[in-house]
Amino acid sequence: MLRPLLQVTAAVSALALIPVASGAMAQVDTASYRQLDMFMEVFNRVKANYVEKVDDATLVKGAIQGMLAALDPHSSFADGLDFDNLKIQTEGNYGGLGLTVTQENGAVKVIAPTEDTPAHRAGIKSGDYITHLDGKFIVGGSLDEAIEQMRGKPGTNITLTVVRPGAEKPLQFTLTREIIVQRPVKWEVKDGVGIININTFTAQTGADTIKAIQEIDKKLGRKPLGYIVDLRENGGGLLSEAIAVADVFLSHGEIVSQRGREKSDIERYYAESMVPGDLARGLPVVVLVDSGTASASEIVAGAIQDHHRGLVMGVRSFGKGSVQSILPMGDRAALRLTTARYYTPSGHSVQEGGIRPDLVVPQISDKDYKERPVIREADLRRHLINNDKVDDNVLEEDTATDPRFSATPEQLKKQGIEDFQLHYALQTIGRLGTKPQVAAKNR
């Protein structure tokens, strides 16, 4: 059975906020019947006159996909491989490369590589375009076919040709497929700070976050100086797990609300519904975000930010503030339909504008960070408009230069700094952690 989730897009390891849907079907009026008559007339004319024979299933599926594409970027019909992708988001492992991809103007575009996978280790990056698989040109083909080619038996090889914006020529990567095991939470201790890296919000993310805190304390034999919650390149997942993770760091108060079509259609979710108290005991918390931080991840960052429980650091997040509901449609098929918007505790909608960090810190250790195009919700066709209207200056702020961060990747590498944002967060926690701490008061 599919669980409710919150995320960005379909993928090789697919990237949605999704609670269970329960509404009744809208009444079909006379005007609707007239439109359906027109649809059937077009359907019959295509069947009778198209240059080649076409089956009913192809036409119906195309009509459904076209109908949903006219709504917003996140409503879709999933069957076959798409349906399998949807299940992988919450419960499955697979043999493949660890790439999350989408299709843009016929090209396969990388949303993000999954950490500790063949694609990630090879250096494939967000924004890359895959043009050839084993030398075969795939631009203009279907996304399903490309995904099926990239998946396969662990231990087998595949060569990807990649066009990277800013690179002088195409790049080639020969990768060995392996079992991609979804590890939603990883942790480590560095400089006395507990680092909790949350990659996705699957069924165990909340429990694994609690376990990470316990293991960090156990390794140190005491509480750390503070915690870094790394949500970079996290496209989202289950709403319930986003609430559970925020609950780990909050002792009380609202975490998120979702609002449907009607003004009265509001659901609110609160801290202490899953975890009693603040398990971090009021210690400093830094939440790392970037343009790949989306949906469920933005719920966690927004709740911690609005309650002044921690410092959000990095660059503006993706900006997906809509809720999708999964409606089963028979065997191996489901409808993913946008049914609500979600809001942070202060009543802020992240749709389009995303979460703006308290401290903007670009990833200057990445030599491509200025050249590589950044895609967010506001760049997607037919995205939902924020009811509060987002200032254009917010959407363009990534182009601004910050004189505080002028070091080059080469200079940072000489200092042993591979991840500048994480380095800066560690320094910040180090400064905060040496000061006397007061018990957390979530405002």
Describe this structure in words.
The protein is of the alpha+beta class. The chain folds into 2 domains: 95-180, PDZ domain (Pdz3 Domain, Roll), CATH 2.30.42; 185-325 and 340-433, Alpha-Beta Complex (2-enoyl-CoA Hydratase, Chain A, domain 1), CATH 3.90.226. The protein is 27% helix and 22% strand. It has helices at residues 30-49, 56-69, 81-90, 118-122, 143-150, 205-220, 239-249, 296-306, 392-395, 409-414, 420-433, and strands at 76-79, 94-96, 99-104, 107-113, 129-133, 136-137, 157-163, 171-176, 178-180, 185-190, 193-198, 227-230, 254-259, 266-270, 285-289, 311-314, 322-328, 333-343, 359-360. The strands form 4 sheets. Strands 3, 4, 5, 6, 7 and 8 form a 6-stranded antiparallel beta sheet that branches. Strands 10-11-12-15-16-19 form a 6-stranded mixed beta sheet, sandwiched between helices. Helix 7 (239-249) runs parallel beside helix 8. The protein starts with 29 loop residues before the first helix and ends in a 10-residue tail after the last helix.
